[in-house]
Recover the amino acids of this structure.
């Protein structure tokens, strides 16, 4: 949706100045974004997501996946 496009545009704009892109989402559509910022700007990425609700393609595209579970929420 519109939020996804806005997030992607912001991420592309600021990735060149960032060391790490942090994304809290499980949406597999963001895998292309992570691949692109890594290839263009050498920006690493951390994805926070609920394991059962996070697309495997997004987990694979991230530099680091941090599962949102009870320990993280408490």
């Amino acid at each position: 949706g519109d939020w996804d496009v806005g997030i992607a545009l912001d991420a592309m704009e600021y990735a060149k100045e960032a060391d790490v892109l942090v994304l809290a989402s499980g949406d597999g559509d963001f895998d292309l974004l992570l691949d692109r910022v890594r290839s263009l700007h050498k920006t690493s990425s951390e994805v926070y997501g609920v394991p059962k609700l996070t697309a495997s393609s997004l987990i694979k595209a991230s530099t680091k996946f941090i599962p949102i579970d009870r320990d993280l929420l408490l």
In short: Residues 13 and 37 are 10 Å apart (CA to CA). The beta strands are 20-24, 44-49, 64-67. The two ends are 31 Å apart (CA to CA).
